[in-house]
Amino acid sequence: MKQITLIIIGTLCVALGTTLLAIPNQLADGGIIGISLLLYYAFDFSPGILLFISFVILIGLSVKFLPRHMVYKSLINVPFLSLLIFLTEDLGQPLGDPLVAAIFAGVITGSGFGLIIQAGSSIGGTSIIGLMFNQKFGWDVVLVTFVLDILIVLAGVFIIGPLYTMYTVVALFVGKIASDYVLSGFDAKKAVNVISLKSIEISKRITTEMASSATVFEGFGGYSEEDKKAVYVVVRSPRILYLKRLIRDIDPDAFVVVHNVKDVSGGTFFATPSMDDTIEVENE
């Protein structure tokens, strides 16, 4: 039920982002949605019907090459998307600012794509062609998909013009960011490496004062040729300043490296131990 709900909400976002923002503001897209929109702008064909026809053709060509589970997932999702676009394609109104339309179209459709992917489904398109070429010729799926999407977007120069093609690129870029946030979550985390002669004391203060688990690694300084210990800890972004102050308070000369982390799972990161709990520091 959760996957079905995500697919429904994600498909609705993609459809409404396309019909309410992209179509009335002359924006295109990649994949078979992009082909449908360009044909709509050029010949005034219904994008919902074109999307469904394109999908049927792709499925007919790929059924011999792709695993059945991939075909089944697309059989459910794409007809639903085509129907939603067909029902709502005349509801949108121009905003008067294509850049704003591109940004919000990217946010809405990108979030929708993220939900669909999170549910383990897809909307087919150029990825199907990429999988076909991979099965038959061994070509890289990502590269083939990327090249096809680029060609579709560039074809928009001859139909919607270079300016609106660039707005389309903006929408695709924003959509990619939105999809990443949906897939990895909005709760940003930081991974911190600390190299110090007082690593043990730092790790103990982290576990007791921040209720976070820290891992201590054995290290060897390439320049100093001395054995040192390194602390590795993952914290949520709002707590990074407190962690830095804690480290400086113990060892102002500590070497600290902060990395952005997209996803964290397992371990004790999501545990909420009390401040009185004793949390063992791992030594590896």
Strand-helix topology:
Layout: H1 2-22, H2 31-43, H3 47-62, H4 68-88, H5 98-118, H6 126-137, H7 141-155, H8 161-184, E1 189-196, H9 199-209, E2 215-220, E3 227-236, H10 240-250, E4 255-261, E5 282-283
Parallel strand pairs: 2-5
Antiparallel strand pairs: 1-3, 1-4, 2-3
Short description:
The protein has 284 residues and is α+β, with helices and mostly antiparallel strands. The chain has helices at 2-22, 31-43, 47-62, 68-88, 98-118, 126-137, 141-155, 161-184, 199-209, 240-250; strands at residues 189-196, 215-220, 227-236, 255-261, 282-283.
Q: Can you describe this structure?
A:
With 284 residues, the chain is α+β, with helices and mostly antiparallel strands. Helix content is 58%, strand content 12%. It has 10 helices and 5 strands; from the N terminus they run H-H-H-H-H-H-H-H-E-H-E-E-H-E-E. A 5-stranded mixed sheet has the order 4-1-3-2-5, with helices on one face. Helix 2 (31-43) crosses helix 3 (47-62), helix 2 runs parallel beside helix 7 (141-155) and helix 9 crosses helix 10. It starts with a helix and ends with a strand. 35% of the residues are buried.
**Average pLDDT:** 82
Indicate the percent of residues in helices. Answer: 55-70%
Order of strands across the main sheet: 4-1-3-2-5
Q: What overall form do the CA principal axes indicate?
A: elongated
Q: Largest sheet, described in full?
A: 5 strands, mixed
Low-confidence stretches: 271-284
> C-alpha Rg, in Å?
25 Å
For the record, give the distance between the C-alpha atoms at the N and C termini, rounded to a whole number: 42 Å
Per DSSP E runs of 2 or more residues, the count of β-strands stands at 5
Name the quaternary structure.
Answer: single chain
Sketch the topology as an H/E string, one letter per element.
Answer: HHHHHHHHEHEEHEE
Q: Beta fraction of the residues?
A: 5-15%
Structural class: alpha+beta
Enumerate how many helices there are, as a single number.
10
